[in-house]
Specification:
4 helices, 187 residues, 3-stranded antiparallel beta sheet, 18% helix, alpha+beta
Length: 187
């Protein structure tokens, strides 16, 4: 089939394509409005998730959120550093999505995708022992996440003591020390 013939066959189909897009409006956020209240009501202590290839933590009442994923920087963590040392806080420089949100005629509503902080307004928890991002750059301030192409993290829940510990190491260095950087209790 020649390109011209293929194009002519496809053009009528293209005129019938409709874009389908699901928005995530914060006012209708299922997790915030429906699931989290059930977790709080039933005394859930810990939600352990992993998606964005980073480590971060937050707390709502006695419920702890812990995102702990392996190395592979997705730039899913963002934080406005008032000192100006940490400069990877501009999401739009890493993703076309943010360029669209900040454009004159965005397809996505900016109020549903805040460029900084937790969309549900949760305060981010800082590591209790040290900020692993300082291993990547000792000039970085204390940051409430680990997002790196070289550092890897893992977390352990000790069911006997109710302690959650998070560790960091550099898998590119065979002599890298595994270091405790965060610890909290879910009792």
């Amino acid at each position: 089939m020649s390109t011209e013939t293929w194009t002519n066959d496809v053009e009528p189909m293209l005129s019938n394509i409709t874009e389908v897009r699901y928005q995530y409006p914060l006012a209708q956020d299922v997790w915030l409005n429906d699931i989290e209240p059930l977790l709080l009501e039933n005394g859930v202590d810990l939600v352990h998730i992993g998606h964005s290839h980073l480590w971060n933590r937050a707390q709502v009442e006695d419920l702890h959120y812990l995102e702990s994923s392996n190395v592979g920087n997705s730039y899913g963590a963002y934080y406005v550093d008032s000192s100006g040392v940490y400069t990877k806080d501009v999401r739009s420089s890493y993703a076309d999505f943010w360029a669209d949100v900040n454009s004159e005629n965005p397809r996505w509503a900016i109020e549903d995708y805040p460029p900084n902080g937790d969309p549900q307004g949760r305060a981010m928890s800082f590591p209790t022992v040290f900020s692993p991002m300082s291993l990547e750059n000792d000039a970085y301030p204390n940051l409430p996440f680990v997002t790196s192409n070289t550092l890897s993290v893992f977390s352990i829940l000790d069911t006997g003591t109710g302690t959650v510990q998070s560790y960091v190491f550099d898998p590119t260095n065979l002599n890298s020390e595994v270091q405790l950087f965060d610890e909290f209790s879910i009792e």
